Amino acid sequence: MDWKSSIRLFGAYLKLERSLSEHSIDAYVHDVQKLASYQTLNPPVKSPDEIRHQDLQAFLAYIHDLGLNATSQARIISGLRSFFKFLITENLIKYNPAEQVDMPKTKRKLPDTLDADEVDRLIGAIDLSTDQGMRNKAILETLYSSGLRVSELTGLKISCVYEYEGFLKVIGKGDKERMVPVGKAALKAISLYQKEVRVHVPIQKGQDDILFVNRRGKGLSRVMVFHIIKDLAVAAGIRKSISPHTMRHSFATHLVEAGADLRAVQEMLGHESITTTEIYTHLSREYLRKEVLKFHPRYKK
User: Fold this and answer.
1) Is 186 contained in some domain?
2) Which has the higher per-residue pLDDT, 298 or 131?
3) Is 52 a catalytic residue?
4) Of 13, 196, 199, 270, which shows the fewest CB atoms inside 10 Å?
């Protein structure tokens, strides 16, 4: 089996079986192509079924010498593991050279979050005397109430807002649907926006069911939501570097700090793996440490 055909089959598997986005598929394929290119530069060229553990180790030493950081190396290893696991599953190879490859140690960067007071200040900085202000309040309340990704927010449909049940139907990564609880404050802001603002906007063709639209009746871009939050942070005097994702991180962190079950938070965030959600336990522990330092008399001495 040659590299070209095996990579083509792998890409089809990622699309049809795992329902990954085009961006994710391109990333996986690009990482495998790195190994294929390395093979052509270091003859004798081996096909995928001829690759052994030592060949991968040599390749990883090569990308390390190129200056790739540990996070990039870990991502490439993850892609190669998926590739060779796919070939094994399809009986295209008999030996998995990536099975014993160790991940480089990476320092997990904890995301910036806002505390409850900062969230209130951010929302309080919105000018509700304008149509855009009413829309922006609904946007922020929704992000903070449900922990949506910005792409999930911009793609949110009116028909997916179940006001009576208190849920949103969200289309997440890989076109996977999930039901996410939404709070009363967010539902109230959404309802006011629809009745007082959106109803007066000339909606463009094909955008009828999109909840959040601009003045021209077209769905918002991710960049526009980013700018809305950046501008509000300045108005609120918040000096942290924040983005729409900060609202998602804050949503999850505040739930974990309050004692929410990690599996429930995983479900709400749409994380495929609980490991991804576990980052919020680190944030919670840091919060607890700061609280002890602040209030315990013996920690002050």
Assistant:
1) yes
2) 131
3) no
4) 199
